[in-house]
Amino acid sequence: MAAHYTEARILNTTFTPLQALLKDPVFCQILNLKFQSEILNGSNIWYCFDHGVTFSSWGEKITLSLTPIPQGQTRVDVSSECRMPTQIIDWGINKQNTTAIFNYIISYLPHYQAALSTVPTQSAVSAPTETACQSPTSSSVPNTTASSANQKYCICCGTLLASDAKFCIKCGSKQPCCDPSPQNE
Question: Which of 18, 23, 39, 96 is the most exposed place for a label (fewest CB within 10 A)?
Fold first, then answer.
């Protein structure tokens, strides 16, 4: 059996913003994932991704499961498993994968929730036209999420970073190029 790691968290959001976030090509690009499939299983939705070969492993199979629970919450299960069935030591890469995915979701979910709440007539969120992240301006983010939206975490190791950081101060990984400040016109 290949080395694996699974983590589950309950998020205070419905399916729609999570689906928009997971279907966004920027999600796969930033986390170096390749989308494989989306499976609807009753009330659950499963997303399958592949993570490429690294110095630590021959790649991983990553599965995300979204399960609705009462009071507008969603249970998110993330599982990362080494692709090679004989790889029994993963040097922590599977835990890093799940941590990076949860950090990305927690960091960018408020932006998707704000975008969906400002455009109620849209049935789906379209993919961004640029390859860079497009975060909403401070005026479009509700005040209730402003404190959590201003926090930025490393997508690889989870370290709290300055909002304008381009690289992580702990692991040195390049961060998504989102500028939370409004642009001068």
Answer: 39
Helix or strand or coil: residue 157? coil
Find where tokens 């599977």 sit. 94
Q: Which helix (H) or strand (E) holds 113?
A: helix 93-118
The dihedral over CA atoms of 4, 7, 8, 11, expressed in degrees to the nearest 10, equals: -130
| Pair of tokens at residue 95 | 């835990």
Q: Are 123 and 27 in contact (CB under 8 A)?
A: no
Contact between 80 and 98 (Cβ < 8 Å): yes
Q: What angle do CA 53, 159, 156 make, to 5 degrees?
A: 10
CA distance 103 to 109: 10
pLDDT digits (tens, 9 = 90+) for 100-121: 999 988 888 887 877 776 644 4
List CB contacts of 123: < 8 A, sequence separation 6 or more: none
Max avg pLDDT among 25-34, 82-91, 139-148: 25-34
**pLDDT range class, residue 76, cuts 50, 70, 90:** very high
Q: 60 and 51 in contact (C-beta within 8 Å)?
A: yes
